[in-house]
Design goal:
Length: 105
């Protein structure tokens, strides 16, 4: 084998090694990006879970506040009026008439 053939073989080996190194760097960069994206996805999932917890806590606080404001009844339930079990004022109060049937107070 002459010197030119040996030089050509060395150049091919060097080029192949350079290409392998470049490919390894590219693969490592891809893995690093994938790891970064996976970490970001985990972080986003954690923040989303925190937001869900905050939302549930806020809803419970609203319901509790409404219960306090509505004398212990469920939100949206009108407190009962004296003498009427349906949660409405007695009929004479709804119509604006007195119990005697006359208008006015």
């Amino acid at each position: 084998m002459d010197d030119d053939a040996r030089d050509e073989a060395a150049r091919r080996r060097d080029e192949a090694a350079r290409l392998r190194d470049e490919e390894d760097r590219d693969l490592f960069a891809i893995r690093r990006l994938e790891d970064d994206m996976a970490a970001e996805a985990r972080d986003m999932e954690d923040r989303l879970a925190g937001l869900r917890d905050d939302e549930a806590r806020a809803e419970r606080e609203i319901v509790d506040e409404e219960r306090r404001e509505h004398w212990g009844h469920e939100p949206g339930h009108v407190p009962g009026w004296p003498g009427d079990g349906a949660g409405r004022p007695p009929a004479h109060r709804r119509s604006g008439r007195s119990r005697s049937g006359r208008s006015g107070p």
